[in-house]
Amino acid sequence: MEAARTLFAWGANSYGQLGLGHKEDVLLPQSLNDFSCKHQNIKSIAGGGGHSAVITGAGELFVCGQNKERQLGLNHTEDVLCFTSCTALSSVCVIQVACGWDFTIILTGNGQVLSCGSNSFGQLGVPQTSGGCLIPQKIESLTEKAVNVAAGLRHALAATESGVVFQWGTGMASRANRASQGKIIPSFLTAKEPCKVTGLEDVKVKKVTASSYHSVSLTDEGELCVWGSNKHGQLVSKETFLVEPQKIDAHFFSGEKIGAVWSGWTHVVAQTAAANSSSLPPPSRRLSQIRRRKKKTQDEMFSEIMESSRSDRAHLNEWKETVSKYRKEASEREDRRDQREDMRDQREERRDARDERWRQEDQRRQDATLGLLREQTDMLRRLVELQE
Questions:
Q1: 256/164 same-domain check
Q2: Enclosing domain of residue 243
Q3: Which of 19, 180, 269, 375 sits between 20 and 30 A of 30, alpha carbons compared?
Q4: pLDDT tens digit sequence for 190-208
């Protein structure tokens, strides 16, 4: 029988995304005992910009946190401080959930993909719904059975049973356009509904992951294909932006195949297929090895632990202040960077809108000029007819 799993949460909690029933930041891990006792078979967890999601072994989806953009799929827009069941999905089995910045992508047991939350950049894959979705909506245009999904800042991915990858959401488009310097970029970077990612025709993808402005796919051969922003070197390329997938050479991983991959905001973590935690000795054996190596008695070890605990308690307040200050500064830096990127995107959108207005105004002037010329021509024709 599998042992019960307990959820722990800590960190920023401005929207109740930790599920602890309040909005105070938490510096040390705290257990969600009530939720863990009621739902012991926790299958997976995910976190977005300000919301969190949990899937149980029974395929139930629980969500909490920020809900201003309807990202929790609870048919309202109020923040939720405790993990709450997504009742709109009570009749389906959820096998995976991916949380974007302000939206959520859900994969069901029958391979269907649903989405809810903000759709400002087409990240929900349902272009007919411009104002976002209060409850999860099926992405009808994704007709192939999906096996894996991912959500980035403003874009999403799905890998299908046949190994094809689809992408939607325009979050990467502005950076792609700047990097391409006027060249046409692939349609999947500007699509607001699932569009096949080109450049992966020779591989079969089994897993995808997404981040702020980059995407990663893992093939059935244990290879990684990456595309998007390489501003921080996360794609192992000399280019600043890869508009199409590029394979990372296996020699970077000592020739080993990759078994799992995850994306952070601007970094990537991969695990080789050979990695196996079962190769570690059990805790009792490790403790025995430590005792023999250091030749310490149980009393000496206990004294050392107690002394360490006293020292830790003495510096706890200082540590809290340091962590709080660092977290605040990091959050402010991240916010400033996001604001700069948003302002840049907004400037480009305003410029596009201005160009469109000018084009329409030019068209109106041309139409007015042509109309005037036609009227003058008609007048001249009538004058000629009268003189005749």
A1: yes
A2: 145-279
A3: 269
A4: 999 999 999 999 999 999 9
Distance between CA 221 and CA 205 in Å, rounded?
A: 9
Both structure tokens of 17: 């995304």
Could you read off the pLDDT of 7-21 as tens digits, one per residue?
999 999 999 999 999
Do 66 and 196 belong to one domain? no
Residue that finishes a domain, picked among 279, 313, 341? 279
Model pTM?
Answer: 0.71
Structure tokens given for 311:
């020292």
Residues 284 and 19: their CA atoms lie apart, in Å, by: 34
CATH code (residue 29)? 2.130.10.30
Of 90, 107, 140, the residue that ends a domain is 140
